[in-house]
Amino acid sequence: MIIVIALGVAALVSAGVLWFFLAPRKAARAVMADGVQEIVVAVKGGYDPAVIEAEAGTPLRLVFDRQEGGECSSHVVFPDFGVDQALPAFRTTTLTITPNEPGEYGFACGMNMLHGTLHILPGKHSSAARMTAAANSEHAKNASDNAGAAGHADTAAADGANNAAPAGQNPAESTLTDEEENAAREIRTLRMRLIVAAVFTLPVFLSAMFHLYHLAPIWQLLLILPVIVYSGRPIYATGWSAIIHRAPEMNALVSVGTAAAFLYSLVVTAAPNLLPQDVREPYYEAVGTIITLMLVGQLLEAHARAGTGEAVRALIGLKPKTARVERDGVITEIPVDDVHVGDIVVIRPGDKLPVDGEVISGNSSVDESMVTGESIPVEKAAGSQVTGATVNGTGTFRYRATRIGADTVLAQIVALVKTAQSSKAPVQRLADRVSAIFVPAVVLIAIWACAFWWVFGPEPKIVHALVSAVSVLVIACPCALGLATPLSITIATGKAATLGILVRSAQALETAADVDTVVLDKTGTITQGTPQLVGFDVFGAWHGREGELLALAADAERNSEHPLAAAIVRAADEGSAVAGIDAVGAGSDDGADDAAEFTAIPGRGIVATVRGHVVIVGNAELVDDHDVGMPDAAGESVDDVFASIDRHAALGHTPMLMAVDGLLAAVIAVADTVKPDSKQAIAALRARGIDVVMLTGDNQDTARAIAHDVGVDHVIAEVRPDAKADEIARLQADGHVVAMVGDGINDAPALVRANVGFAIGGGTDVAIESADITLMNGSLAGVVTAIDLAHATMRNIGQNLGFAFGYNGIGIPVAAGVLYPFTGMLLNPMIAGAAMAFSSLSVVTNANRLRAFSPERVRPYRISARKMKANTRKGTIMGLFSRKNDSQDAGAHDMHGMDMHAHGMHHAGAGAGGSETDPICGMSVNPATAAAKREYNGKTYYFCGAGCAAAFDKNPEQYAK
């Protein structure tokens, strides 16, 4: 009968526990007022309410009222919105986000222990709310671009006050200062509580465990009371609150376990006659020791959390406090936050640059390693762009401030790093699923362990039952499980930033570890991206008039932003001597004239009217479309044109065709030098088992020559920008995980299509919208470092999860007593408490090993990649032409069908399937989901990202059709 009653009670309690913890929770609806939804969320052992309903498309103001201290709830993280907001203890913090898409979005504490959910419903008031919000808040239109499709987040304010940062100051800096102060205050408080707990627990521990002296139960009680009342008060307050909110976590488990031990000990002290003679031993030493060890773990976690912001603090610390500014002829030293756009900043030797700008006089070398990770100083002269927080060398110069405060490169880097650190890696989903049922499962195990020991255990049954239940509750460590992934991600993304690698999200970092194929654009990626004119072979009546023809080509190209066009313009303006052109003649023309008409044909070239001449510069496809013929005057043939193209291509030059007034005039050859470290980086990728592919719009011969020089076996040539994404998709269809590395807007479709997009930055170009990872120093070595760091991070996360799962998987059964039949011993609750603290310590220590990551010391690894079938092929569009057949059909004087596919000079072409085409990058865009749109001359243009929209805004005439 006793057995039936005991097991029946355990079953009923278990059912109650399951209902209490796992039953659906009632959602609280945010209240709409003045175009903004608002809800107050109490933070004490959980979030109340933990389920929030709100409308899409309307700003949602979340007022977090944190009613506790401790590290666990000191932050709230919204990974889908890129938000990691500090919540000061016993204060209110307001966070405004705008969820644009209906759906379910989770949020959690910084330790990933407390969880809540946002249910976003289709909006009914979104239009009116947007109008009201725009009228009430000017910065509503300047929301962060980093939040992704889910929505965006505005700045937070503490105590209900709108503590906006001063004009020109980056809000992240003031936020970080507040976080540092709060973290330091929490650590000081934890340290004091730990000291008190240790001092009062030690006498009880020595008496009970080592029997050095006898200490009556009443004295043990008096010594432990300060530990419970003062040191353990936050643990109990948070733990019981978490149970009430049906969101139990570490504090709840410890609270239940130690409370059971304390109450049992209190009965032993106050009414021992209620218990059998052989079970009248109190467990005060276990209560005190467990609380002390819990505080040790919390202190370690607090230090770990503070350490994860080290990279961001180091970046912000690079910013100087003052700036020397010249105003009205007087040089004055002012706070850096008082610098305005347009101010003239004076830099002396050794000075740290306060803001971004453009050099107007003087020259020097500048150390940009703190931003780009590149240690070699960069020479600066008039016209050069400079970046704030970099360090001047021995020269002096003056520069005009162009970007200040939150617009500087440094501020954008800080924002990107913080966004990445608040994102959630896919590998974390397993831990999240386990965490959701972890605490209820532990409570159930404790209940049934207690029941089985009570029914089937040896005497004294009550003691064995109590010890096993308390040990199970205390040894379980959900903290280790919650910390395993986010701690490694935070440290890794911060480390990447110090190496000049900006990772947008945890997902990008995780995917980078799976890459088996790296696709490289040629110009600006493998090569320097600053081509030079190296050949100018003229035909027909233009013999002897090379300088005049070059000036004509330069004037036609002046409105183009393409690097190849810039090479032609630069050669004409500087009068540089190249093959086929007299240096004096090049610069002796009438000067630069603007083209009367200018049209850029994406992926083909340009057509312009200059000085009464119709000038075409581009590839053979463009020349074919305009029915260009061979001139008769010099008796030259198509074979002569082929010979010129082949000669330049064999040397690695990029040949282009120029036609004037319907007749071929010249073959223009441009060359771009290979970056010094490209060959080494490609060799490093191949050594890791990663296939490397060159994907370029250049002709096959040129591409093959460059590929041979840098060690690339697989070449896909003559691909227009809009077809690059198709080639990426083809590789993915073959089972490859593809990383695309590009440097310009014309690579945007391929960067988006790839599993991971790497953007080659230029030191001042922080964020390319379509890229997952930005390499600030523009070096291919950064791709190798990023992939190596991704592998190290995922290996570290795997180890952390192994520690967490392995510890709990072994510790909980041992605490329940599975070893008792073999050893005759139960796990002492104090040992369980020590093991609990050690589990968190092991995860924290292991994650911190990532701080020592160095590109020079990488653990060897190899990727198993599928081998590609062909070494060299044409792209799907440019490959439609056959040189041999077309040249035979064309005849000696007809340019139609000639396969002289010079480098496409501009961006991608038309869209497909009823969609609109981004006029900047050529990517197909669904108007319903376009990232941005613009009205110009009565026509609507749609864009894939904010970067393309910004480029259109600078010169809409160039791209409007």
In the CATH hierarchy, the architecture of the domain at 530-581 and 595-673 is 3-Layer(aba) Sandwich
> How many DSSP-defined strands?
39
Helix content: 40-55%
CATH superfamily of the domain at 530-581 and 595-673: Calcium-transporting ATPase, cytoplasmic domain N
Shape assignment: elongated
Which blocks of ≥5 consecutive residues have pLDDT under 50?
128-149, 155-168, 583-592, 876-913
Count of alpha and pi helical runs: 31
- Proportion of strand residues: 15-25%
Could you name the CATH topology of the domain at 530-581 and 595-673? Calcium-transporting ATPase, cytoplasmic domain N
Q: Roughly how many Å apart are the termini?
A: 89 Å
Mean pLDDT across the residues is 79
Class based on secondary structure composition and strand pairing: alpha+beta
Membrane topology: Multi-pass membrane protein
Biased composition (Low complexity): 145-172
Family: Belongs to the cation transport ATPase (P-type) (TC 3.A.3) family. Type IB subfamily.
InterPro entries: ATPase_P-typ_cyto_dom_N, ATPase_P-typ_P_site, ATPase_P-typ_TM_dom_sf, ATPase_P-typ_transduc_dom_A_sf, ATPase_P-type_domA, Cupredoxin, EfeO_Cupredoxin, Ferritin-like_SF
